[in-house]
Amino acid sequence: MSPHWLHGETSRLPVEGTLPDFGGATGWLNSPPLTAEGLRGKVVLVNFWTYTCVNWLRQLPYVRAWADKYTEKGLVVVGVHTPEFGFEHDLDNVRRESHGDRVDYPVALDNDYAVWRAFDNHYWPALYLADADGKIRYHHFGEGEYSRTEMAIQRLLDDPDREIVEVAPRPVEVSADWSTLRSPENYTGYERTERFSSPDGIVFGKPHRYDAPDRLGLNDWALVGDWTMGEQATTANAAGGRLVYRFHARDLNAVMGAATPVRFQLLLDGAPPAEAHGADLDADGFGTIGDRRLYQLLRQPGRIADRTAEITFLDPGAETYSFTFG
């Protein structure tokens, strides 16, 4: 795609405010601390993210590609890692996942949400684009609009190369199949969970032996076995704990982890997932969780329908946080 703009034209990008400072950051990766004043003269793309967010992971290939293509032309990409879950405050976790995700540009660690508040931001992911005078000229919340965002970058850089980047995403970074997506993100901790369907309901913060209902409706989920449902995480207290989820989407992902490795098996409508398995389990449905992160469980080929995923954790200690779909 080659957009046909007049060379140097920036008048159609409104001024939306002044680039806030990053003084509230609790640390930095890949860079010494940066300031808004020190970035004057550069075009700055600020990307709010948290490493378990599937929406950010699907945006990431484009942010990486823009950093690669435009840094030498005057663009500075600044990631702002504002954590959603408690474990995302841990520097070693953020450093490990940043390295694995090939986030090589500067990252402000925003554990106290100070930078988030300075931008009056409310979304993961979010993009803010500032010109060389420190004025915000463009923003986008959520996924998509990649060509439009890159055109805004080109316009502020006065870049004569109007070609749009092509990306080669990892499996977890592939865009959702929006046309078949009927299941929203859901959490397994009691603070934000919805449609929990085990017959006894939620037992807050205490070990309890749960059972599955006779039937799960679409987007219902349930626990089976000995579990403790905490505010953010639901933890299997014994081997053999099961989690069942009725969903309608091409992809099924889960934010999970454990203090020590935990083996699991996923069955799809009672059978091994075969060619529908995701990157983090095999065709028989077996996988292992350890690091607290997003795990890609299913990517279904062919026709998408209502399906039931049943995950059995073969060791105690599994922590589940959320399910996302694509």
Automatic annotation (TrEMBL):
Gene3D superfamilies (UniProt xref): Galactose-binding domain-like, Glutaredoxin
Higher taxonomy: Bacteria, Bacillati, Actinomycetota, Actinomycetes, Micromonosporales
Highest taxon in the source lineage: Bacteria
A Pfam family annotated for this UniProt entry: Redoxin
The organism of origin for this protein: Paractinoplanes globisporus
Annotated ranges, domain Thioredoxin: 1-158
Name by which UniProt lists this protein: Redoxin family protein
Transmembrane segments: none
Annotated PANTHER family: PROTEIN DIPZ, THIOL:DISULFIDE INTERCHANGE PROTEIN DSBE
